[in-house]
């Protein structure tokens, strides 16, 4: 059947070009869209990577500060315990005598 054959296999090159042209254009258009989306995703990925690096840097900085403050806190706590132990062992009468003796010493120096 020649009509059936011309429908599926056209002999006219213009018909072949006209039928294939929109298909090629859609493929090229799709490839361009995929390329644009890929570039957009690459830019987003780069921004997210930079943000992650920034957050990692801030995290490291915060950890350093935490360690520094923790060490300071432990040092202050130790010093407070030392002072508490010293105060427990001081006799109030002895403290008064030491203070009075120092006061007397200062007064003697002033009169001399």
From TrEMBL:
Domain Groucho/TLE N-terminal Q-rich: 23-92
Entry keyword set: Nucleus, Wnt signaling pathway
UniProt GO MF annotations: transcription corepressor activity
Compartment annotation: Nucleus
Domain of life: Eukaryota
One annotated Gene Ontology cellular component of this protein: nucleus
Keyword Nucleus in annotation: yes
GO biological process: negative regulation of canonical Wnt signaling pathway; Wnt signaling pathway
Family: Belongs to the WD repeat Groucho/TLE family.
Protein name: Groucho/TLE N-terminal Q-rich domain-containing protein
Species annotation: Prolemur simus
């Amino acid at each position: 059947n020649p009509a059936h054959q011309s429908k599926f296999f056209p002999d006219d090159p213009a018909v072949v070009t006209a039928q294939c042209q929109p298909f090629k254009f859609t493929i090229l258009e799709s490839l361009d869209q995929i390329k644009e989306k890929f570039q957009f995703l690459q830019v987003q990925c780069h921004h997210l990577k930079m943000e992650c690096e920034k957050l990692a840097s801030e995290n490291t900085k915060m950890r350093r500060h935490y360690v520094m403050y923790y060490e300071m806190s432990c040092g202050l706590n130790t010093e407070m315990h030392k002072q508490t132990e010293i105060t427990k062992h001081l006799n109030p009468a002895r403290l008064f005598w030491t203070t009075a003796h120092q006061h007397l010493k200062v007064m003697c120096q002033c009169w001399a």
